[in-house]
Every structure is written in C-alpha cells, then in structure tokens.
Amino acid sequence: MKGFVLQLLDATHAEEIIGVTSFVGEDASGSFGLLPGHIRFMTILSTGIAKYRIGDSDWKYLAAPGGVIYFHNNRLTLCTYRFVLDDDYLRISQTLQEQLLGEEKKRQRVKESLHHMEEAILNRLWEMGRR
After folding, report:
1. Which of 16, 17, 35, 13 is nearest to 25 (CA)?
2. For 45, phi and psi rounded to 5 degrees?
3. Beta 75-79 vs 41-54: how paired, if at all?
4. If you ran DSSP here, which 8-state letter would residue 10 be given?
5. Best exposed site among 68, 79, 96, 98 by fewest CB in 10 Å?
6. C-alpha angle with apex 88: 82 to 94, nearest 5 degrees?
C-alpha cells in the first residue's frame, strides 16, 4: 500500500514522517481516519492522542494540545503549539497529562499576575483622582 507524508509543525521544531498508511484522530465531530489518496480535508484536531501507522507496523502515537490538520496531495500537515511522539500509549498519555497540567498552572499564574496588575492600576488611578 502506498503511503502519505505526515508533516508535524510546532513552535520549536518540525518533523516529517514518510510512508504513513493510516492516521486516526479526533475533532469536534468525533473520530476520523485518513488513508492515502483521501480527498482534501481540513479540521481542528481536539486535544488528545492521535495515532498513525507506517505500512503494517504497530501504531505510533501523537499527543498534541489541539491543532489544525490539512490533508492535500497525499500530505497531512499538522500545525500545533507542541507535539510529542511515542510508540507506547500509556507513556504518551502520561506525558500529555503532565503537559496539560503544566500549561494549566502557567495559565493560572498569568491570570494571577494580570489580576495584580489590574489592582495596581486601579489603585494608582484612585490615588491620582484624590489629588
């Protein structure tokens, strides 16, 4: 079976996987699969784990916090903030969970920082209004 190219792009690096014969992912409508020769296709990948296969080999896993995928001319391109590849489902699911928790902690710190900045600005405006 002829394969297609899986091109992975994130904020820090790119990777190209040649000979992919099957890709399974999930978007807002549910799971979907892509095979070589598929018609043009574009969707927003849900946060989670997709899988792909090269030839008849075992599934390989791709974890990403969402992203846009575009399939055209036997090339599937994924643009995402970050991706992780692994052969072991349990290991990659743990990695994804750790990354998502880390991102949530960072978001919480940013929210707290913005809240403190807002308070400081309001206090400054209040002081200026008293003068």
Report:
1. 35
2. -75, 135
3. unpaired
4. -
5. 98
6. 55
Is residue 101 scored above 80 in pLDDT? Answer: no
Whether this model's pTM surpasses 0.70: yes
Q: When comparing pLDDT for 14 and 98, which is higher?
A: 14
For 15, 53, 73, 86, 129, the CA distances from 38, given in Å and listed in that order, are 21, 15, 8, 25, 65
Tokens of 55: 């030839």
> What's the domain range around 10?
4-130
CATH of residue 56: 2.60.15.10
d(CA 49, CA 40): 22
Residue with tokens 């000979």: 19
CA–CA dist 9, 12 (Å, integer): 8
Mean pLDDT value across residues 5-27: 96
